[in-house]
Amino acid sequence: MANNYNPYDNMLQVLETAAQKLGLSRNDYEAIKYPERELKVSIPVKMDNGDIRVFEGYRVQHSSSRGPCKGGIRYHEEVDIDEVKALAAWMTFKCAVVNLPYGGAKGAVKVDPKKLSRGELERLTRRFTTSILPIIGPEKDIPAPDVNTDAEIMGWIMDTYSMLHGYAVPGVVTGKSIDIGGSLGRAEATGRGVSVVTGELLKHFNIPEKGTRVAIQGMGNVGGVTARLLYEQGYKIVGVSDVSGGVYKADGLDIPDIQAYLDAHKKTLEGYSAAGVKKISNTELLTSDCDVLIPCALQNQITEDIAGSVKAKYIVEGANGPTTVEADAVLSKKGIIILPDILANAGGVIVSYFEWVQNIQELTWEESQINDTLKKILIRSFGQVLEIVKEHQVTFRIAAYMLAISKLAKAKKIRGVFP
Ligand code: NDP
Q: In the chain, N or C terminus with fewer CB closer than 10 Å?
């Protein structure tokens, strides 16, 4: 974790508030508070120098009430079980908000993949896959990429699972390469979704997209695509950052130039310079002068310590859990509107769902069909959350949780408690 803050407690607090606003009885939502299953595994890996190193891995399945579990796999050296439990629960809520027939899960390995060779990373991934094999599968639990995992890693997972079953099973993971059953549009889906809901939010407040000043933390899969799409739509991207720090330019950064720099410098912003561009820290990025702040890195970035200094009027959570509960209260008091992660970054899981549907039906969709349906689902979900905001006079976060929990409580009630 980025600090001592516990994202699972954060999730529980928001869940309680939303359940109370809905007037649910404790019996209606008690089971939603706990993950259905937590698996911890030890992963021995033969390193290139012949040594054996053992890594710790997890797969947490939060809920399968509304369908198979779904959620990414994260490689990060500071990951812990509470972070994975929170991320798994957020996946359950996210799938319910956008009405996908999925529950939620998350997996992680405690490792800094930048310190491993490609061969070591492949052996780690394949061994992790065999360790979680009994609980994953197209009808049970479908992993996907998350922080520090990508299409190549998903390919190794798909291959390992398929080899052990004796036939190709593309539907076991999403976010794969197109050549082995991946979906058109998946790589860009989360950033595309962030750009769609940002547009809807501005439209609701009658603010033109053109010239709106945006700062983005993180230039990976989510942040990088969000920056490019918003830039192409005429937004002014004034600040971006990665783990090495950030850059800021009041009259707008040249995003294609920055993308070209990242491509040429192993995806790091370190050393980037251009006329009028100021170097800033990540905290300065989060508190920079902008209209919309889009955190797209890790959880717990906007804390109580810096919330008072945030200048943006709107925050769109591209990352999962970037705002702590305490910070959320400070920001709300300042009148800052926050579009929560479970709605704002749902584009990824929506197109993952399309990928899985294509895999299990053994057909392929056109990219335009994928992008159009993604947009339609997000606009519909934004509208439903907005209705709850207006009706109950709550924040977008509480409204999104209310929408999710009402669907989960209903599903649980219909299914009943076994035995
Ligand atoms: P990536 O690994 O592709 O990118 C993460 C980015 O954040 C990189 O630019 C990284 O910098 C930067 N970063 C990491 N740590 C810090 C830090 N401490 N301060 C500032 N920047 C930092 O991950 P994704 O883009 O896939 O994921 C980002 C967030 O979005 C996560 O919270 C993830 O759970 C969430 N998400 C991702 C989805 C997806 O489809 N990929 C779907 C939904 C949510 P560097 O490269 O220099 O390390």
A: C
Half-sphere exposure of 366 (CA within 13 A, CB side): 3
Catalytic pick among 70, 85, 94, 106: 106
Q: Which fold has domain 35-169?
A: Rossmann fold (3.40.50)
- CATH of the domain spanning 189-344: 3.40.50.720
Burial of 260 (0-12, 13-18, 19+ CB in 10 A): exposed
Residue of 3, 194, 221 best suited for mutating to test ligand 1, as the one with most atoms within 8 Å of CB: 221
> pLDDT tens across 75-88, in order?
999 999 999 999 99
What pTM does this model have?
0.96
Q: Is 61 helix (H, G, I), strand (E, B) or coil?
A: strand
Distance 223 CA to ligand 1 centre (A): 7
Confidence of residue 3 (pLDDT cuts 50, 70, 90): low
In terms of DSSP H, where are the helices of 166-322? Answer: 186-204, 221-232, 255-264, 282-286, 304-307
According to DSSP, the residues that pair with 37 across neighbouring strands are 61
For tokens 């400070």, the residue is: 330
